[in-house]
Write a structure and sequence with these properties.
Elements (H helix, E strand, L loop, with lengths): L22 H8 L6 E5 L4 H7 L5 E6 L2 H16 L2 H8 L7 H9 L4 H8 L2 H6 L6 H13 L6 H9 L3 H12 L2 H10 L2 H8 L12 H14 L7 H8 L12 H10 L3 E5 L2 H4 L10 E3 L9 H14 L5 E6 L14 E3 L1 H8 L9 E7 L1
Parallel strand pairs: 1-2, 1-4, 2-3, 4-5
Antiparallel strand pairs: 5-7, 6-7
């Protein structure tokens, strides 16, 4: 059974040059042990690498996009070849004038296909490999062309200086949440513009309701209830780099841990559906499923859950995010799949990728 979304969108491009899901709550939810075999959606590779820091016995990264596999493979080479500060330069977390030379040091560790992919994109490498996906380009346009029409730099900087939650709420309502912010935000993050310029129109096939209103509500939460100074995702959206916070896989304390276990990672150009038809599926203890169910019909979503249950064993955990489409275990599977909703809801309150509507954690009985 091939992936439903693979028939509807172009996966030859880099859609996500970073993983826009908070690995901190992912790691806590999965509780990976040294004897565990894990599966992760590849995306740009950050969260698969974050999972490696926990020292699983094996980790398989899956993606249906050759471009996303190329992003992951270059990151793996960078962890092997570069120092921590050099990795941050290559990603784009910090400024650099030598990204091409850093890439050349990693180049010999790449497969032929991935080498050709990156050799043909020197300008992308110079921009920073975490800055070149379709979604990141969308955020760059928002940062450089749209946000400047709403708020001056001093006001933006002020948002990141406020450590007290009450101060952030006051600042948001008195200084930030003006009519121009609401109007322009709703227009830019509408279903139409986000579908055409940031994601893909077909990614909204199962979405009901007003997209921009929901994102505005989540932005309010992310800018007030959470501390922007501790949020690498919000910082990238507003500044195009990491100023005072890094995502899990890029933190110095995790760099050596990931290096130590890097050879336990393998990657496959394969959908979850196709993976579940392989013998390896019977041995998996932990699944990071990203937001893949966002793009499936309810029937296909239920079918994949049934296959995961059939392949898994008692204690196998599944983690996934809801963005705009509500997906969680149906009642008819309650005897086979336990919803760890209390922990999931607690973790979602801390989710620095604030735009998600829900964080789901389930465990096979």
């Amino acid at each position: 059974m091939s992936s439903e979304v693979s028939q509807k969108a172009d996966f030859s491009i880099i859609r996500y040059a970073q993983c826009w899901e908070d690995a901190d709550i992912l790691i806590e939810a999965l509780n990976i042990q040294p004897d565990h075999a894990c599966v992760a959606i590849g995306s740009a590779g950050d969260n698969a690498l974050a999972m490696l820091s926990q020292g699983p016995e094996r980790l398989i990264a899956l993606d249906i996009s050759p471009a996303q596999i190329a992003c992951l493979e270059l990151r793996v080479a960078a962890y092997k070849e570069l120092e921590h500060g050099e990795l941050l330069e290559l990603i784009g977390s910090t400024s650099s004038s030598r990204r091409l030379s850093l890439y050349r040091r990693c180049r010999s560790l790449l497969s032929i296909d991935t080498r050709q992919f990156w050799d043909s994109r020197p300008h992308d490498i110079e921009l920073g490999i975490g800055n070149i996906g379709k979604l990141e380009n969308y955020f760059r346009f928002f940062r450089t062309r749209v946000l400047a029409l709403i708020h001056p730099p001093a006001r933006i900087n002020r948002l990141f200086d406020l450590k007290n939650i009450q101060d952030r709420h006051y600042f948001y309502h008195k200084s930030w949440d003006n009519r121009r912010w609401r109007l322009i935000f709703k227009a830019f993050f509408s279903r139409f513009l986000l579908g055409c310029l940031g994601r893909d129109p077909n990614f909204f096939n199962y979405v009901d309701g007003n997209v921009s209103e929901r994102f505005l509500e989540r932005a309010h939460y992310g800018m007030t209830a959470l501390d922007p100074a501790d949020n690498p995702y919000l910082q990238w959206i507003f500044y195009g780099c990491h100023k005072t916070a890094l995502p899990y896989a890029l933190r110095p304390e995790n760099f050596k841990k990931i290096q130590k276990h890097i050879d336990k990672l393998e990657w496959r150009l394969q959908s979850v559906e196709d993976f579940l038809a392989t013998p390896d599926a019977a041995a998996i203890d932990r699944y990071n499923l990203s937001d893949i169910f966002e793009y499936m019909s309810i029937e296909n979503y239920h079918h994949v859950l049934e296959r995961l249950i059939a392949c898994g064993s008692s204690g196998t955990r599944l983690v996934y995010w809801n963005l705009l489409v509500p997906r969680q275990r149906p009642e008819y599977l309650a005897a086979q799949l336990n919803s760890l909703s209390s922990l999931a809801e607690e973790l979602h309150l801390r989710d620095k990728t604030f735009f998600y509507s829900a964080f789901i954690l389930e465990e096979i009985v």
